[in-house]
Design brief:
Layout lengths: L2 E8 L1 H5 L3 H11 L2 E8 L3 H7 L4 H17 L8 H16 L4 E9 L1 H9 L12 H5 L4 H6 L8 E3 L3 H11 L13 H5 L8 H6 L15
Helix pairs in contact: 4-5
Length: about 220
């Protein structure tokens, strides 16, 4: 089984636009289980641990940002590293001291599913039906114009390893509940909902479509 946990956070703009219930519904309808949730206004120290400044992240983020500009025929006027550091600072400014709704979701392929529900990081190209595709009019160009982070409604862990790190960062172990949902067997099992064999026999219909007793008339 591919049972996983992922970290999802509704960002300040999602809260301000009253999307909490609608966002939770999207994950519930997909079959994921909410095992931890809380409102929090993170400190700079916590936000800096979330938006890490390690070299691997800087390289990955910077290259993605730089390629996005190139694909649009735009000269960013910055190196990939400079773009990554700019992005991180914008994220720190946006998260620190503002209310977010932090959640841990559990289920088969939770990380990949969470990313799919969230949609592409850039709402302009996110699929219709995703949170970002449906709820945000943003783009990198808009965020650059205002010199702020992109307002894409939610954060979703990008890998199993990242999810584990983020969950441990935002939640204490006793805040995450391990419990069963009634519908879990339907979602991940196979031997459920079968009619009792004796009941099947009592309600059987002949091949002709008539009750067996009709043959004796």
């Amino acid at each position: 089984m591919h049972q996983e946990r992922t970290f999802i956070a509704i960002k300040p703009e999602g809260i301000q636009r009253r999307f909490i219930g609608e966002i939770i519904t999207k994950f519930e309808k997909k079959g994921l289980k909410l095992v931890a949730a809380k409102f929090t206004a993170p400190s700079l120290e916590l936000t800096e641990k979330h938006y890490t400044d390690d070299e691997a992240w800087i390289e990955s983020s910077g290259n993605r940002s730089y390629q996005n500009y190139v694909d649009k025929g735009i000269d960013p006027g910055k190196t990939p590293r400079e773009l990554a550091l700019m992005t991180r600072q914008r994220c720190l400014d946006h998260f620190t001291g503002r209310t977010i709704f932090a959640m841990t979701w559990e289920g088969p392929h939770a990380v990949q599913t969470g990313r799919k529900i969230a949609g592409h990081t850039n709402p302009l190209v996110a699929d219709n039906g995703s949170i970002r595709g449906d709820m945000s009019p943003e783009s990198y160009e808009v965020s650059d114009n205002f010199d702020r982070t992109i307002l894409n409604i939610v954060h979703a862990s990008g890998s199993v390893e990242e999810a584990e790190k983020e969950i441990n960062l935002w939640f204490d172990k006793d805040e995450i509940l391990d419990y069963k949902m009634i519908d879990e067997e339907i979602m991940i099992g196979k031997d459920w909902g079968k009619v009792d064999p004796s009941r099947q026999q009592a309600t059987s219909i002949g091949r002709s479509g008539h009750d067996e007793s009709d043959k004796q008339k």
